[in-house]
GTPase Obg (Streptococcus mitis), 436 residues
Amino acid sequence: MSMFLDTAKIKVKAGNGGDGMVAFRREKYVPNGGPWGGDGGRGGNVVFVVDEGLRTLMDFRYNRHFKAESGEKGMTKGMHGRGAEDLRVRVPQGTTVRDAETGKVLTDLIEHGQEFIVAHGGRGGRGNIRFATPKNPAPEISENGEPGQERELQLELKILADVGLVGFPSVGKSTLLSVITSAKPKIGAYHFTTIVPNLGMVRAQSGDSFAVADLPGLIEGASQGVGLGTQFLRHIERTRVILHIIDMSASEGRDPYEDYLAINKELESYNLRLMERPQIIVANKMDMPESQENLEEFKKKLAENYDEFEDLPAIFPISGLTKQGLATLLDATAELLDKTPEFLLYDESDMEEEAYYGFDEEEKAFEISRDDDATWVLSGEKLMKLFNMTNFDRDESVMKFARQLRGMGVDEALRARGAKDGDLVRIGKFEFEFVD
């Protein structure tokens, strides 16, 4: 089994806030001691941290659930509970994180040490010391901790490379990578020898260095899933220059120019923006018979079918076997990289809007529906947050929650929907009678 994995779906759960405490001061010589219950601690965040030593998402194949610790409960003497440590999860450079439900990009992690909070921990609930007022100097009210954020994430690894090698199987991509870098890709005289991307560093004669990725061979129909499909084309999205390798010897009976058109069509089908990247055409296997004749025919067809107002892509004849023409190719690639800017992978429509942890005034605070058993059901993000943070073991906390519901207009809305005295109302698994 290949140890390379470039996609994963995981679930993350931040820690809940600790519950606030109800306590009263009970000390000798301190008459009428007041409330003394402290707040709960904050729940731990789930944080992704970029580690340049990782090269694959294989760790996420066997561990798909990540849960941070919850905060400690509040204590007596007004002491706060301890906040939980953040759960730090290491990911490789080039990891894109999406919300699996919405498909929106949360972050693109490309720099070593870069951190991003993918799930925020809940704040601690307030203890009864926070609710003391002149009218109620000894409240028996506390809050439960806020639930931590929970979400399902889709991870995609897009390796960091400046240059991508593309072309049909067996055109010499792996051989080229092996002679211009220290990488040792598998090389064989059969199709799809390369089944995972390989990465290597190149140093040109000019002294410039850059990273090159050899991608598994494409074939016609790859965008429809033929061969290895386009499952590895995501790795070319970060590249700035494409080296289009063509077998100019036509050793497998294909026409080099038709190969060139077919591969570009697959790149365009996968992602239109890939065609924005400048291409260098690498005419490989020039040590073979008939290669020179095929190259002349290729240049002729390319010139005939190219727009007269567009610049023809540069063509570099080489031989990966004899190393002919490699120095010139690498210097030209380095020069092209110097004047080619980075390409923006995601625009604003792809990115999730910056998180807002309050409530939108235009958003409904609650929704009312009715179950088959005629029970009224209350739901809604704001209402459920108040519900989850209510301590139902304390009568005063329950009465406070009832006042909050009334202030939100729940009573009036139920009455308008036809709720009668004695009707059952359900919030989550909690049920109570409606009192008109």
Notes: The radius of gyration is 32 Å. The chain has eight helices and 18 strands.
